[in-house]
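Sharing a chain and its predicted structure for anyone who wants a worked example. Both blocks are below, sequence first, tokens second.
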Amino acid sequence: MFRLLLLLIIVVPALEIAVLLLSGQVIGLWPTISLILLTGVLGAWLAKKEGLQTMRLAQLQAGRGEIPSGVVLDGLCILVGGVVLLTPGFITDALGFFLLIPQTRTIAKAFLLRLFDRMIKSGNFIILKRH
């Protein structure tokens, strides 16, 4: 896991720089900067909208006595998507929007559920119950 994280810390910024340089050459400096700012503002608005909607749904489910498990994964995806959108770059912006848009977020949630299930079965993730 640490190797994967280290690889991402090195590879993703290098790819982002390459894409930004290419974009600057193809469409120009100011359009590239404008796109970066536009995706940041749009991403912040979308993260706030989706986050508030998810919090309302969690409160509604908790008020009915339901466990808001799916909403927790939504919140995790929205948090990560919002943070990733704050970093400048088109690759991270694509990932951020993927995690923020409800229709594509369901794909990420299914992946996370499979990942958590695999981690629990292998003993790498433990859930403690309180009595």
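Comments welcome. The mean pLDDT is 89.
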